[in-house]
Description:
Elements: E1 2-8, E2 14-18, E3 21-25, H1 27-33, H2 35-42, E4 45-46, E5 55-58, H3 67-77
Parallel strand pairs: 1-3, 2-5
Antiparallel strand pairs: 2-3, 4-5
Helix pairs in contact: 1-2
Amino acid sequence: MQRHDIYWFEDALLLLDVQDTVFKVHGSLLARLSPVLSALIASAAPAPEHIADHKRITLDPSLGVQAGEFTRLLEYVYHDE
């Protein structure tokens, strides 16, 4: 897994794995925007790294979500594009 160059926020609490990329983003922001992501975040287990208050989600590869597509979603969410 490699950290995303842009969407790795030190103050964020959600680690989200998409393909071979891990994003560290603000779960509360994503949860407000998407009922699907909200449900995933609500059911997420604590991060195995034992980082206090952090959660980790791995998107199932069978969903067909590509890291580049998820990056574009985050560009919209964070108003980078």
